[in-house]
Specification:
Distance between the termini: 12 Å
Number of strands: 8
Strand content: 35-45%
Helix content: 10-25%
Radius of gyration: 15 Å
Number of helices: 2
Order of helices and strands: EEEHEEEHEE
Structural class: alpha/beta
Largest sheet: 6 strands, mixed
Length: 147
């Protein structure tokens, strides 16, 4: 499972011209699911991201986590994180098929919500327009595989 996590002041996703989800301070997470990913991986990644300390404390140091700043999460499915870039035209055969990816995308969001966070999201498989005001900017790449 791959995730691009951006600390944001605000973020939103629009589908067919209509606002689908929006947050203020928190994380915009672009989530890609691989063919060998599992519920355990989704849960572990969600936990790791929720406990990540990248928000600034009173001294300006990245020392606070999402809960400590009252943050929210916007999750957008992003199969292109598994793109094969060996040629000029990306291939996507390394991404999980939708029948596996969608339930794991939903599990990931449920795992975050279970920790008490507001979770907004895009629509799996939809053509979406994502907007964000990055804070910092702080952008981190996670890649988690079965052990």
């Amino acid at each position: 499972m791959r995730a691009v996590v951006t600390r944001v002041r605000e973020a939103s996703v629009t589908i067919d011209g209509a606002l689908h989800g929006a947050i203020k301070q928190g994380y915009l997470i672009l989530l890609g699911v691989g063919p060998s990913d599992t519920v355990a991986i989704a849960d572990k990644l969600a936990d790791k991201i929720c406990k990540l300390r990248v928000f600034e404390d009173e001294q300006g140091k990245m020392n606070l986590n999402l809960a400590q700043v009252g943050g929210s999460v916007l999750v957008v499915s992003q199969f292109t994180l598994y793109a094969d870039l060996r040629s000029r035209r990306p291939g996507f055969s390394h991404a999980a098929p939708p029948t596996l990816a969608q339930p794991l995308y939903e599990e990931f969001m449920q795992a975050i919500a279970a920790q008490g966070f507001q979770v907004e999201h895009g629509e799996f498989g939809a053509d979406m327009q994502v907007s964000s005001i990055n804070d910092g900017p702080v952008t981190l790449l996670f890649e988690m595989e079965a052990e």
